[in-house]
Every structure is written in structure tokens, then in C-alpha cells.
Design goal:
About 45% of the residues lie in helices and about 20% in strands. The chain has about 130 residues and is α+β, with helices and mostly antiparallel strands. The chain has a domain at about 10-45 and about 80-125: Nucleoside diphosphate kinase-like domain (Alpha-Beta Plaits, 2-Layer Sandwich), CATH 3.30.70.141. The chain has a four-stranded antiparallel beta sheet, sandwiched between helices. Helix 3 packs across helix 4.
Length: about 130
């Protein structure tokens, strides 16, 4: 039997945006997270507003940001704190998988995942979770 030290685990953030929440993609995301050997340690409903979107996406401060803010503020998102080995790689693959089956446009992407520990910490702090 292999025992993992706590330090081997990564903790990341996965967000289902309002349209994904409305279309019950929550169940699919939860199922895939577990299938990938990770676990959800916390779930939190999030209501984005323009200011939060501005802080959350500092690298996307362009002409699309107002449209993204309108999209994200148009309903509740669900933030999942996920823990597991190679968490960021697995969440990145899940984000890609869900976007391939779900994305409506450059703006309506349905999901977000943190790319690194530093991003996850910053994003969780911004969301207050």
C-alpha cells in the first residue's frame, strides 16, 4: 500500500459558470473529478459582479472584459475546491474536455480552472472561499 504525504496533494479551484450551472453540468463535473482520483473539499456559490471580474481576470483587460462581466454576473457560478495529485493538470484537462462539449463562444465557455497553486490561492481569496 502506498501512503501519500499531505504535501503531495495539490489544491485547485474549478468553477462552473452560470450557463454550465443552469444546464446541470455540475453533476458531470463532480463525476469526472472523482473519476480522476480527486476529491471536492468545498463547494461555494459565487455571484460575480463587474469589479470581481475585473480583479479575477487581470490578464484579460481588453474589449471583451465588459462582455465577460455581463456573462458572469448573469447568474450564480459554482466554485469547487478540489484536492488531488497532479490536480492542476487534471483540472486543466477537465476544463478542456467540458469546453469542447459545452462552449458556445469565446465568452460563453462554461468553466474555469486555476492553472497553478499561486493562481488558486489568489482566486480563492478573491472569491472569499
Amino acid at each position: 500500500m502506498i501512503y501519500l504525504a499531505k504535501r503531495d496533494l495539490e489544491k485547485g479551484l474549478f468553477i462552473l459558470k452560470p450557463d454550465a450551472v443552469r444546464q446541470n453540468e455540475i453533476y458531470y463535473a463532480r463525476k469526472r473529478i472523482v473519476e480522476e482520483g480527486m476529491r471536492i473539499t468545498k463547494e461555494s456559490s459565487v455571484q460575480f459582479d463587474y469589479d470581481l471580474v475585473w480583479e479575477f481576470y487581470p490578464d484579460k483587460r481588453d474589449a471583451l472584459l465588459p462582455k465577460v462581466a455581463e456573462y458572469l454576473s448573469n447568474g450564480q457560478s459554482l466554485a469547487l475546491i478540489v484536492e488531488g495529485i497532479n490536480c492542476f493538470d487534471k483540472l486543466g484537462r477537465l476544463k478542456k474536455e467540458m469546453r469542447e462539449r459545452f462552449t458556445h463562444s469565446e465568452i460563453y465557455t462554461g468553466t474555469h480552472s486555476s492553472d497553478s497553486f499561486e493562481d488558486a490561492v489568489r482566486e480563492m481569496q478573491l472569491l472569499g472561499i
